[in-house]
Amino acid sequence: MVRRSNGSRKARQKTSSVSQLDWRSVENPYPPMEVLSADQIDAICDTAFRILEDVGMDILHDGAKSLLRKAGADVDPSGDRVRFDRELINEAMKHAPSQVTLHARNPNHTLTIGGNRIAFGSVASAPNSSDIIDGRRSGNQKDYRDFLRLGQSLNIVHFFGGYPVEPIDLPPATRHLDCIGDFATLTDKVYHAYSLGRERIVDALEITRLAFDCSQEALAEKTRIFTIINTSSPLRLDGVMIEGAFEMARHNQLCVITPFTLSGAMSPVTIAGALAQQHAEALAGMALLQIHSPGCPVAYGGFTSNVDMKTGAPAFGTPENARAALIGGQLARRVGVPYRSSNVNASNCVDAQATYESQMSTWAALMGHANFLMHGAGWLEGGLCASFEKMVIDAEMLQSLSEFLRPLQVDEGSLGLEAVKDVGPGGHFFGTAHTLERYETAFYTPMVSDWNNFENWQDRGSKNATQRAHDISRQLLKDYQTPPMDVARAEAISDFIARRKSEGGVAEG
Predict the structure, then answer these.
(1) Which of 27, 32, 321, 509 is the least buried, fewest Cβ under 10 Å from its Cβ?
(2) 271 lies in a domain?
(3) pTM of this structure
(4) The dihedral of CA 329, 331, 335, 341: what is its sign?
(5) Beta strands 339-342; 298-301: pairing state
(6) CA distance linking residue 470 with residue 69, whole number of Å
(7) Mind listing the pLDDT tens digit for each residue in 44-60?
(8) What is the CATH number of the domain that holds 335?
(9) Number of domains in the chain
């Protein structure tokens, strides 16, 4: 069990029988890995501009097309095709901030997104959930709420990237009300709202306003929620997404523009070609929002991977996926906005494949200086399943990586010369004063791994990592405590949800 905190590295007071690292903001002290040369990045950027100039994008929203036409874009008078001049893009992007502060209901969980900081999120948008006892099942409200409780309890999970699992037992027209209400009351961390039209965003903003107990004007003074805007690759931006994005931008909330570019399927089969298309789509989306609301927070989303060319199934955690994540960071830094990447795998169960593919993708995101790691904990089956055990195992990996990012202390005490003098040739260091003084804090002790020898492991039940992760997830859920909220705020949220349900929720369902 982990015994140290972020600063003093002393044992923290536990609110659960599961010990873990304290919640802390994570910074990356290492330089980003530059996979491509500046000339190669120039070539990808130039190709992206040529895509926008020569091919263009379909913008399926009349208001957005009118806005772009006034800004100088070439809009097809009888269709949806919009062609963007590179100067228009560059001028619009001058307004985009290089970092954004995401304010959580609990100020201790507020995040700064940008620079050398990296934040880890929960799995999001899975249609199914699973654990090793009850197996795989369709998404439901009970599991949804349990994933929120687990994510709230895991300190290394900094934010919720969307509904961890889609609760399909709730009516589509009002589902968002229950889900955002649960985000606001069962957690006190930053959360996501889906931009599936304007109405859902308006409701999410109102629930958030009530949770923070602030005015409409004050709501827009701070960025408190975020949304992922997926382009419909290749080269299309849907009207329903634009409606939600415009409402978010109008209220100074963060939009992460993320093309869904899978090489050989929704983008060219080559990684360079896929990245050029990714860059074009991301630039078009971010520029549109800057034209609509100059200075609104935006982020560059990278999700490029490859597919299995025999089946067409998405593949994740591959060498191609890792290189794309690293290069995506270079492209985002060229634009000067925060960068989103993902922890992904394509395994159908919580096994070695799930772990090594996740490690591959997470390491690439880390070395690519991602600021926002979506699906950081719990993703399985290429995103089709949220796993309770995988959430804990991923949290273990993220804790290990956060320790790896902690600057190494090199001073007279840490160099241990006196300890070496005490022991001399032969002997051991177990009993030296130098060791005993640092016994509790010398090393990272994992939450899931068992480092006992075979005999002791047998005596402890012979459980593998997945079984231990299951036990930890159940214990955390048992120990979960609802974060405090003023009764009046909770009642206001409940009343608003009840009223909106009585009105039928979202008109389009």
Answers:
(1) 509
(2) yes
(3) 0.95
(4) negative
(5) parallel
(6) 55
(7) 999 999 999 999 999 99
(8) 3.20.20.480
(9) 1
